[in-house]
């Protein structure tokens, strides 16, 4: 009995003294941590600034309001990441994951913003964040409804749905209508960056191997500089320091907007389950604990709620950074915390943030497409933790078919109500999550052994029927002979 506490205390002491990059509580040297932190920072920065840029365009924001939305998004992402790494009371995942303003909400934000403006978005976000807290509290009682076959399907679709983003970035921009979109020069930069990442990851050693993505970004950035693809105009115009304001925008509450936001916040909770599961499975070789899941969802709901008061958009896990953790196995929270601190500094200093945004899209695309591939493979890892029975393959197959099929042909749901169309048509993860969750509840639970027994029973019944028919034919033949 007395050995258990001593062992636990000793393990804690070892964790506290660890300098390993592969220990969550490890405290590696700064020079080891720096390139790995920058790798996470550069992987997430485009995803952080893109939603506020899109929303600013939809709501007709002024230049000052647009810069404010970008700045507070960067700051909120840094604060949110550090908060989740260390946690407060029951809030926070305490896992090697990056949190921040995410892509998953964009379709809903665009729909709400077009009708009700930024005020309608922030009002709906406040209610949506509270809803996420409620989901986080009750998840411990309903977690059994999200087994690996459901979480794995969500992660798999997350990875698959990110490929077009990476390809657009490699082609030169997130906007396919840009004048230089698809320019061969962009592809040259992207391919050089990608090859550099592959070479560093597969042939490099030590820090070079672990920092493969940032090595690729540095090479791609230098090539872009030589080709004149880097603009410092935003850096020149940006101020050095800017302090966030409370309630920079008013809040408005509209029933339709709130309904849309609540639904997407609940769906995003499923994505969070998938991302956190992918983090523990891909980076830590274990299943996600209930305490970590509950803390992650509660924390994400809290940060989304508080963010609305400062003009920051809803927060979520960053799938591309999950891919980095899965690829490198670097899980030290010091690495991710430093990335979060850089984000906070960037949020407080718009000039610093503007410098980060000078990295051309082809460089980001070439560096992150391998990460998106790792997310897909992590989803498959989760799936194979469950038996690939006919039931589970039906869940996965139908979820993939419906989600990716609708995403490939959005005109198929053009006749749907606008709210429903924006909800399920904007991101395939919504359809995948709903389908997988529903089928897992509705379909009878049958293991491979159950299905084998069922086939054996059917075979035996067929055999018995055949023998009975054969016996009956023999009996009739014998009666016919006697009659003759």
From TrEMBL:
Pfam families on file: Xan_ur_permease (PF00860)
Membrane topology type: Multi-pass membrane protein
Region entry Disordered, spans: 449-484
UniProt similarity note: Belongs to the nucleobase:cation symporter-2 (NCS2) (TC 2.A.40) family.
Compartments, as annotated in UniProt: Membrane
InterPro entries from the UniProt entry: NCS2, Xan_ur_permease
Keywords: Membrane, Transmembrane, Transmembrane helix, Transport
TM region positions: 41-61, 68-89, 121-139, 145-163, 184-204, 210-232, 253-273, 293-313, 334-353, 359-383, 425-443
Signal peptide start-end: none
Protein name (Swiss-Prot/TrEMBL): Purine permease
């Amino acid at each position: 009995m007395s050995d258990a506490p001593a062992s636990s205390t000793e393990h804690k002491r070892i964790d506290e003294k660890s300098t390993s990059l592969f220990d969550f509580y490890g405290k590696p040297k700064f020079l080891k941590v720096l390139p790995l932190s920058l790798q996470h920072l550069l992987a997430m920065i485009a995803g952080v600034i893109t939603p506020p840029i899109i929303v600013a365009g939809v709501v007709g924001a002024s230049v000052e309001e647009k810069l404010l939305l970008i700045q507070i998004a960067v700051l909120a992402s840094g604060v949110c990441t550090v908060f989740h790494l260390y946690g407060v009371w029951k809030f926070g995942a305490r896992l090697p994951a990056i949190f921040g303003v995410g892509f998953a909400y964009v379709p809903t934000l665009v729909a709400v913003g077009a009708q009700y403006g930024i005020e309608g978005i922030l009002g709906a976000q406040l209610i949506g964040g509270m809803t996420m807290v409620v989901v986080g509290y009750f998840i411990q009682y309903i977690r059994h409804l999200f087994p690996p076959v459901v979480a794995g399907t969500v992660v798999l679709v997350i990875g698959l749905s990110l490929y077009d983003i990476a390809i657009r970035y490699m082609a030169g921009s997130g906007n396919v209508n840009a004048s230089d979109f698809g320019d061969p020069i962009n592809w040259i930069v992207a391919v050089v960056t990608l090859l550099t990442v592959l070479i560093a990851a597969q042939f490099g050693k030590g820090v070079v191997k672990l920092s493969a993505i940032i090595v690729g970004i540095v090479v791609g950035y230098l090539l872009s500089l030589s080709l004149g693809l880097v603009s410092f105009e935003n850096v020149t115009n940006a101020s050095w320091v800017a302090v966030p304001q409370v309630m920079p925008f008013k809040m408005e509450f509209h029933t339709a907007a709130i309904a849309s936001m609540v639904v997407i916040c609940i769906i995003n909770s499923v994505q969070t389950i998938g991302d956190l599961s992918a983090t523990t499975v891909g980076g830590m070789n274990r299943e996600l604990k209930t305490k970590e899941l509950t803390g992650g969802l509660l924390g994400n709901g809290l940060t989304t709620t508080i963010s609305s008061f400062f003009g920051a958009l809803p927060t979520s896990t960053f799938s591309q950074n999950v891919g980095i953790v899965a690829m490198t196995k670097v899980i030290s929270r010091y690495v991710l915390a430093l990335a979060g601190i850089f984000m906070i500094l960037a949020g407080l200093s718009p000039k610093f943030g503007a410098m980060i945004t000078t990295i051309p899209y082809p460089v980001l695309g070439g560096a992150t497409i391998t990460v998106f591939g790792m997310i897909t493979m992590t989803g498959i890892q989760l799936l194979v933790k469950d038996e690939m029975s006919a039931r589970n393959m039906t869940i996965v197959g139908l979820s993939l078919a419906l989600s990716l099929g609708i995403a490939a042909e959005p005109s198929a749901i053009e006749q749907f109500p606008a709210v429903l169309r924006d909800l399920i048509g904007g991101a395939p993860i919504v359809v995948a999550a709903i389908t997988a969750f529903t089928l897992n509840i509705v379909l009878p639970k049958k293991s491979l052994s159950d299905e084998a027994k069922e086939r054996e029973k059917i075979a035996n019944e067929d055999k018995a029927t055949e023998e009975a028919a054969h016996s009956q034919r023999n009996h009739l033949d014998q009666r016919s002979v006697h009659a003759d």
